[in-house]
Design goal:
With 334 residues, the chain is α/β, with parallel strands linked by helices. It has one domain. Helices cover 31% and strands 16% of the residues. The protein has 9 helices and 12 strands. Helix 7 links the parallel strand 9 and strand 10. Helix 3 runs parallel beside helix 4. The chain is globular and about 50 Å long. The chain starts with 5 loop residues before the first helix and ends with a strand.
Length: 334
């Protein structure tokens, strides 16, 4: 099940195909010491909740990730709340500064995904097809991410300890790049984190998704590649088999999952994969939180309810065994 509302409208209609990109949200992370809201987002290291990504990323064909944080806040923190992730139609600097400022004013902490569309190549440079249908090169996307970060930093209250991990989101939807493998690789002189909206229905053969993940793994960056996708029917009657589904959620050494949980069926599918992975491969799906797509009009599952739904399904299907852990970390994309 893909990002059902905006993605279906944008990706599956009209001549301009706009996917969310195969590669992953490569994420350029910059602290506030260095750098100062929209619509439609480690070799053998333990998975981290979404709110604690820390990295730095290059201008390569797949992504950008920005971390912001301020000085210590003496006040106690409020309970965890969902961040707002967004589908982007432009790279206009003023828009991104407003988006970042709005996030700071809401008290956003955790992962924020800015989805710039599927990876693309215009003959000269790598970039993406935005949700408006326009091409945006990686340099413009990086500047947009920095503008969001600066807007966020500028609007934080003095002394706040709030921070976000700002991620550029992509997917495996029909990437139009010369090499999917190269799209997954990044510059060896910087560290990075990444994320990928992985949908089996967008790549039934699995080979494009596999090549992107292999390219990322061969870069040996040491940071997670987060899959914030779906299972499209699960691993029994679905499109991919268990080995393929597990590879992009924990089998590849950097792979972690931020699954789309839009309903109980999706929670059951992910819980089933977790059980198969434990019994067949003796390894866990590395959950790092959940993603929802709730709006005022669709009355979808609330982020916190989605996380609890997945936890319950894991316990039920675990049959008394210790279930995979799901951090209380959530993001709502719109």
């Amino acid at each position: 099940m893909s990002v059902e509302n905006c993605t279906n409208l944008v990706y599956k209609r009209g001549p301009a195909v706009l996917g969310v990109s195969i590669g992953g949200l490569l994420c350029l992370i910059v602290t506030l010491l260095l750098i100062g809201p929209p619509e439609k987002a480690r070799a053998a290291v333990a998975p981290r909740p979404l709110a604690h990504l820390v990295s730095l990323d290059p201008l390569v064909a797949a992504g950008t990730h920005i971390l912001e944080h301020a000085q210590a806040d003496p006040k106690p923190k409020a309970p965890t709340r969902a961040t707002i992730s967004l589908y982007e139609r432009t790279t206009a600097p003023t828009l991104f500064r407003r988006q970042g400022c709005s996030a700071a004013q809401r008290g956003a902490t955790g992962v924020v995904i800015l989805d710039f569309g599927k990876p693309s190549y215009n003959g000269h440079t790598y970039g993406t097809i935005l949700f408006s249908g326009a091409f945006a090169g990686n340099k413009k996307i990086t500047r947009a991410m920095l503008d969001y970060a600066r807007g966020y930093a500028a609007c934080l209250p003095r002394g706040s300890s709030d921070h976000i991990a700002l991620a550029r989101g992509t997917s495996n939807y029909h990437p139009s790049v010369p090499s999917v493998y190269k799209a997954g690789r990044i510059d060896a002189h910087v560290t990075s984190a990444a994320a990928d909206d992985v949908e089996p229905a967008w790549d039934p053969s699995f080979w494009r998704t596999r090549d992107f993940y292999r390219g990322y793994a061969d870069s040996r960056v040491g940071h997670a590649l987060y899959n914030y996708g779906s299972l499209d029917g699960g691993i029994v009657s679905g499109i991919w088999n268990a080995h393929q589904a597990f590879y992009v959620t924990g089998g590849m050494r950097y792979a972690h999952a931020i699954p789309e949980i839009y309903n109980r069926t999706m929670a059951r599918e992910w819980a089933a994969l977790a059980q198969v992975a434990q019994h067949r491969y003796h390894r866990s799906v590395k959950f790092a939180g959940v993603m929802t797509e709730r709006t005022a009009s669709n009355h979808g599952v609330k982020p916190r309810d989605a996380q609890r739904m997945l936890v319950r399904e894991l316990a039920v299907q675990g049959r008394g065994n210790a279930p995979a852990q799901v951090p209380a970390a959530y993001t709502n994309i719109r």
